[in-house]
Amino acid sequence: MGFTLLLLAWLSLDDLVEDWSQVESAPEKLEIFFTEDLWPPDWSVLEAEVWVDGSLHKPNGDICDESIELFCSKAWTGMVVTVKMAFISTIVGFIFAVPLASLAAGNMTPLPIAIPARVLLAGLRSLPSIIWALLFAIALGFGPLPGILAMTLYTIGYLGKLQYEAMEGISNAPLESAMAMGLNHSERLFHVVIPESSNELLSQLLFMFEYNVRHGTVLGLVGAGGIGMYIDNYINPPFDYDRAFALLIVVFVVVVVIDLISMFIRSFVTEEGDVKRPKWWTVLLPAGVAADYYKKLSKFKGKNRSPDESE
Amino acid sequence: MSEDSTLELRDLSVGYKEPLISKINKKILPGESIAILGPSGIGKTTLLRTIAGLIRPLSGEISHSYPKRGGIGYIPQRLGLIRHSSVRSNITIGARTRRSRWYPALFPLSRELKNDVDSAMKSLNIEDLADEPVRILSGGQQRRVAIARTLIQKPRIILADEFLGELDTENVKSIIAATKAVIKEIGATMIMVEHHEERAIAIADRIWRIKGNELIEDGDSNQ
């Protein structure tokens, strides 16, 4: 089965690609682009702008009065705007996505309600956020607001779909108990479905935040502000690819940090969430001390378990 | 208990597309407890879920006047607890049904609600586990939580699907005693699906057996 699918994929690719000779020179071209344009990254994006009189300025022209120069840099100010945009869109999108997802989930509502809710969610996500941003930029002008609105609408459509699928995946038993008890839709949503699918919902929420941070860089291309605007400036003439590369590394680091935060937050609702978890500051301890700490924790974990087999 | 709480099954057929059990005609008076016995896959759970209002009957009628909110307490085979929530939150779900839907939202810290939940936990000896997430509890402890959640509802009828599971004798005895005491106190009817005949006889006043696709009632099991 797997082999057949792979073969089909290969045949489709072969059908689409007319000239395979272009692949031959690809490594060489990439090497030239990487060594001449990208490498080394230009880390001046982590510094404030120096004007002719020697004074330090923020990218918007304000005088840099921060004690740390990094806070006046393009990377920092751009990233802060991007993260703020992503945060607002994710939270607002989540607040609208959850009730819509509960209407679209087949185990919570009958089909005549679920289908229109699904169509609405599909409609919201079928336009990529960059097209939404373009529409809002035409209506409202450039700046973070069209970017935020675009990402919010896309978040509702995308997160809504992930969430109704997570809601449909929960065990039927708690939902049936609640239905037999006579709890209404919102009580079932808030007291059964959300706690029961909390791991997936949290994971999707954090993934969406990370996605919006990454996507904020693309939205800069339509003038939505943030770090994407600077990247856009650098990949256009006069082509400062080494600076764009440095900014992309900053985005990568932020995405990794969000992933680590996500891992920590989700540990509260995963199956292992009941055990005492290591503290973040253990990474600062010398290896031997940290090992002792983990050993103590694992003993605690052993004691804390009360498996069903004990009966 | 008023005559209102009588449950009547008239010409009831239950199943999915094809009937599993047909032509059930039974009257269950308030305070009675019934155990349904029969081999696996014969339709015991389907009958229970139909009475709970989760599946439509294929034909016939179920008549009762239980209140829509909180009138029926259902303990499914897999208990239906919310694994990531604490014991207290799980039991509070049952307590909600005795109040208007706005009450817990408007008064989430209500002392009355808290006291109700505390006394339900006490009656089933799980007060020490109040803040533990359900997923870390043992099978016996989880069963106590499920029962407490249903009993706090003070339902008119309890529908329990093999709620004693594979527990050891000691646990079964104490859970049966606790359940019986509360059922007596609130005067509820109980219909339970059970695999073990001895347990069924220990709890129930009436025994229903399913053979083929017929429901046959024994004489009074206490005699």
List the helices and strands and how they pair.
The complex is a heterodimer of chains A (311) and B (223).
Chain A: H1 2-16, H2 21-24, H3 26-38, E1 49-50, E2 56-57, H4 74-104, H5 111-126, H6 129-140, H7 144-168, H8 172-181, H9 185-196, H10 198-219, H11 227-235, H12 241-266, H13 287-304
Antiparallel strand pairs in A: 1-2
Chain B: E1 7-16, E2 18-28, E3 33-37, H1 44-51, E4 59-63, E5 72-75, H2 87-96, H3 103-106, H4 111-123, H5 139-151, E6 157-161, H6 169-186, E7 189-193, H7 197-203, E8 206-211, E9 214-217
Helix pairs in contact in B: 2-4, 2-5, 5-6
Largest interface: A-B, 32 and 46 residues
Give the name of the CATH superfamily of the largest domain in chain B: P-loop containing nucleotide triphosphate hydrolases
The stretches of 5 or more residues of chain B where confidence is low (pLDDT under 50) are: none
Oligomer: heterodimer
Poorly predicted runs of 5 or more residues of chain A: 301-311
Structural class of chain A: mainly alpha
